[in-house]
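Design job #97: recover the sequence.
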């Protein structure tokens, strides 16, 4: 039975660890130390590493993990990650036989040039592209690319569990409530997220159904979100890419 647990790293990163009773794969190990500690404590054998993008807080621990054990390292083929053994892109499948699980690779550029997501077992590992009630900054791509990438993820089934790279949920909800103040789904998510954080627990995963209902960056066609974007810009726009770009810029400045 596959279990997915977070290993915490740095201030707010999660290194998602897929595990059985004996084997484990990790997604985005920015730091090797907490992963090594977890694997040793749980007596697990590392069998694969998956990377979503090249930022050091996602791949900085890969080399350290490989010192102990050579395992396949999957990651975006068009990003500078020297430790990759299996470069992947849209249409590829990553099969981890030891965990009896397969993931489809999705290209989701925007945060970085060739960011990928892994989708399988009703779960989505989306790095810094989609966050709970938010999205990543557009560093290397364009707003058009980021919007298309988010739309691609939003088209996955409602029950898909969203495992993103950071615990940003409460801050994201604070901003989302400015954009979409009367959204009841958002208010419900805030109540749950506060309770979880007060108990010292992760707010993740959320589901894609919840994100579609509450995440303003997936709701750029909703009148309330369009109105807020227009108020921010002092203009009248309705094109979803421009709405997306406006609220992304607004969040960067807030
Ligand atoms: Zn990043």
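Job complete. Output follows.
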């Amino acid at each position: 039975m596959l279990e997915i647990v977070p290993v915490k790293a740095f201030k707010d990163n999660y290194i998602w660890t897929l595990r059985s009773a004996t084997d484990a794969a990790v997604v985005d190990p920015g730091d090797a130390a907490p992963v090594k500690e977890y694997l040793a404590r749980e007596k697990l054998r590392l069998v694969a590493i998956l990377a979503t993008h090249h930022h050091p807080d996602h791949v900085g621990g890969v080399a350290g993990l490989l010192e102990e054990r050579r395992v396949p390292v999957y990651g975006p083929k068009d990003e500078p990650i020297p430790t990759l053994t299996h470069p992947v892109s849209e249409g590829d499948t990553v099969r981890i036989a030891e965990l009896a699980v397969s993931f489809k690779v999705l290209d989701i550029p925007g945060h970085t040039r060739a960011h990928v997501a892994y989708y399988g077992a009703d779960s989505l590992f989306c790095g810094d592209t989609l966050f709970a009630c938010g999205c990543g900054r557009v560093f290397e791509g364009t707003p058009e690319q980021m919007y298309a990438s988010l739309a691609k993820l939003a088209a996955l089934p409602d029950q898909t569990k969203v495992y993103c790279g950071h615990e940003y949920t409460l801050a994201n909800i604070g901003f989302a409530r400015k954009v979409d103040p009367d959204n009841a789904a958002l208010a419900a998510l805030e109540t749950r997220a506060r309770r979880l954080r007060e108990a010292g627990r992760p707010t993740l995963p959320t589901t894609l159904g919840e994100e579609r209902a509450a995440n303003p960056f997936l709701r750029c066609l909703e009148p309330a979100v369009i109105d807020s974007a227009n108020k921010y810009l002092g203009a009248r726009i309705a094109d979803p890419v421009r709405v997306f770009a406006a609220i992304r810029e607004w969040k960067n400045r807030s």
